[in-house]
Amino acid sequence: MTLPVPTRKPPTATPVFSVDGLWKVFGPKADRVPADPGLSSLDAAALRARTGCTAAVRDVSFDVRKGEVFVVMGLSGSGKSTLVRCLTRLIEPTAGTIAIDGEDVRAMDKGRLRELRRHRAAMVFQHFGLLPHRTVLDNVAYGLEIQGMGRSQRRERAAEVVAKVGLEGMEKRRPGQLSGGQRQRVGLARALAVDPEVLLFDEPFSALDPLIRRDMQEEVVRLHREEG
Question: Fewer CB within 10 Å: N-end or C-end of the chain?
């Protein structure tokens, strides 16, 4: 199935993220599918019948530039989450190229990949991904702890971001004491705390009720306007 993602090739400035001809195929001998025109042109049902494979992401190309909000839209099961996870190789792509600031993500060794995930690209997940035994403040500071930042410095930075997302006064609460919207704010704050070049959102508000979802969308717009 093909994701409805536009291909844009602006002539100037290196994109923050550049994706070209990206495929993710699940199944036996998956790498043969993008390489074989006879297989890559098959629709989803025919591909499964002939090879036992499913193309979750099919020949996707796009660029994302600094300060840009880029949205991927599609039906449930169309491959959006798989695509987002491929960008930092949480899921390994089958074929194609991914670059961040011109650096080939698929060529990164384990050390460079850790650096990418810790410092350069942060993700906000649909199901929060919070550590239940940690307080709000310590959840937000977790990425900074992984980076090796000292305790006092990371807690100070975490407190700043907690205030930015509207959770000031809740620093000592644990995730189980928060509403769904508040937990998602903690997830957003944790991603913002590491000051990444890119924020990746994997349908982070889809599990929230409509009113809270709208509030969170407005919150992200506000933070983007303020933080750039």
Answer: C
